[in-house]
Amino acid sequence: MSPLVAVPDHIAQARRRDGLAPALPWRSFADLFKSRIHDRALVNRPFLTYRDDDRNIHYTYSYAEFGAVVQRAAAFLHDSVGLRRGDRLATLLFNHDVTVVLYFAAWLSGITVVPINVEESPEKKRFILDHSEASAVCCRHSYMEEVTSLQKELPALRRVIAVNDEGFLEEAGREARDKGKPSSKSSRLTSLGSSLDDEALIVYTSGTTGLPKGVVLTADNLLTDADAIADWHAFGADDRLMCVLPIHHVNGTVVTLVTPFYCKGSVVLNRKFKSAAFWRRLHEEAVTCVSVVPTLLEFLLDANEDATACNLSAFRGFICGAGPLLKDTAARFEDRFGFPIRHGYGLSETTCYSCFLPNDLSREEHRHWLTGYEFPSIGVPLRHNTMAILDGEGQPVPELARGEICIRGGTVCAGYFKRDDANDAAFQGGWFRSGDEGFYVRDERGRPFFFISGRLKELIIRGGVNISPLEIDDALKSHPLVRFAMAIPFENRYYGEEIAAYVVPRDGTSLPTEPDLLAHCRRFLPFYKCPKVILFGDDVPYTSTGKPKRLELKSRLASALAAHRDSQFTER
């Protein structure tokens, strides 16, 4: 497998940067990496601070210390694991400093990272490991038995590497946090031939077909979006971005790992989000910005913590996206806490963010674009990419008219891995077609402010996480008393969307109950994918061609589900 991504013409057309910002000055990720860790002004400045409240862990790497640890990890991957440029390394890890080190070590060496959510089912994990052709996987030691059992079915998977809090278990006697100087061998790794066109990530995202699709992101994609995000928000060496989102997702990875490194800033990585510690953490770490999803804004509103005792003079506001933001949530949050929500939009296929609300808006203008229309605006395109609203024929639609949100430029991915069918559907006419419905409105300066009004796709986005409804359908249909089942989203204050299910029972004397079906789903699905409400009916909503009418059903049941808009469903 060549380490360079061979991009078909129709995908290359959607990635062109004609008339946009100039190309990056770096030749590879290793080029950027060396420039940062050898910058005398950065040597003793903090880059990565890791906080784990449950274990009372708190420590910081300087740029020099981080560089040394990353180079040693790269040497381990090269010498002990046998990975080379173009190989793929899967990870079954959570937010941890070792995970960050591993990512950077792989990119430094031209190795592709395939992050896998530890909460996925064994079947989904096996599919991703197999489809991605991963040569090795790094997993927490607690998942070692599960992964080695899958390895028997995966001929490409040569190594399974256990990781604990100190690093790779194979490196007995030498902790990953050792602050010593890198060996000469590991230093030479940074000069190995590599390119911005190397694969950096294959991120598997749920699709309407039910099977995950592997989004191929290059090193150029990661650095281009980091450059765009840093430019838009004027991030620099004095900025400290806090990460509370999972770093197996592009939001946590790109916004709060790659972008701080790119702009010479620093990152505060949390093991997990905790509303009770949130404002105190901003104070303790002098955080300037944090990236969240709308769900976390609701949790902070409910917690209603008193932040007046915290010194938040450094904090400038929230980056928010990756899920439906309600106008009411945005207005209540800004009124309660006084910090601006920098609302934006993007997809894994566009690396992360493609647009944001401008930061030069007055307070009144900002509130207008958040609440003055049916939906909050997702903002204006970033440099390196452009956006348009197109009809089904690929033609631009007038202002305020509904169409499909389309994106073109340097943040667009290199395609879906081994999915020519998905590539043909998504890359058309020189654009990446998002599958999301939207419209735009120009301001007095002529800038197009975009809005997302719905999804042409049928994905459910719960708390910023994409969920395929077909997976839920299948779990419900496996119940012996269920004739037909269809998962549908409904508007929810906490998660933007929550999951309901419409069920048609089989004919007979016994009928399924809601508690019975909910318990049945928990046998097959993690809690976040399970329906929280079951509605029963007697008609099967299929089209004449046999396609389920999910969107029609969602609309038909909206009034019945409206009573659950403010419900917070918890695992029991």
Uncertain residue ranges = 171-191
Which CATH C-level class of the domain at 460-564 is it?
Alpha Beta
Fraction of residues in helix:
25-40%
User: Given the structure, what is the number of helices?
Assistant: 17
The number of distinct β-strands equals 26
CATH topology of the domain at 460-564: GMP Synthetase, Chain A, domain 3
Walk me through the structure.
- The chain is α/β, with parallel strands linked by helices and 572 residues long.
- The protein has a domain at 460-564: GMP Synthetase, Chain A, domain 3.
- It contains 17 helices and 26 strands.
- The strands form five sheets. Strands 1, 2, 10, 11, 12, 13, 14, 15, 16, 17, 18, 19, 20 and 21 form a 14-stranded mixed sheet that branches.
- Strand 19 (427-428) and strand 20 form a beta hairpin.
- The longest helix is centred in the N-terminal third of the chain and has 17 residues, at 63-79.
- The chain is globular.
- The relative contact order is 0.10.
- The model is unreliable at 171-191 (pLDDT under 50).
Topology:
Layout: H1 9-14, H2 29-37, E1 46-52, E2 57-62, H3 63-79, E3 88-92, H4 97-108, E4 112-115, H5 122-131, E5 136-140, H6 144-151, E6 159-164, E7 167-168, H7 184-189, E8 199-205, E9 213-218, H8 219-233, E10 240-243, H9 250-262, E11 266-270, H10 275-285, E12 289-292, H11 294-303, E13 318-320, H12 327-337, E14 341-345, E15 355-356, H13 363-371, E16 377-381, E17 385-390, E18 403-409, H14 420-426, E19 427-428, E20 431-442, E21 448-455, E22 460-462, E23 465-467, H15 469-477, E24 482-492, E25 496-505, H16 514-522, E26 533-536, H17 550-561
Parallel strand pairs: 1-11, 3-4, 3-5, 5-6, 10-11, 10-12, 12-13, 13-14, 25-26
Antiparallel strand pairs: 1-2, 6-7, 8-9, 14-15, 15-16, 16-21, 17-18, 18-20, 19-20, 20-21, 22-23, 24-25
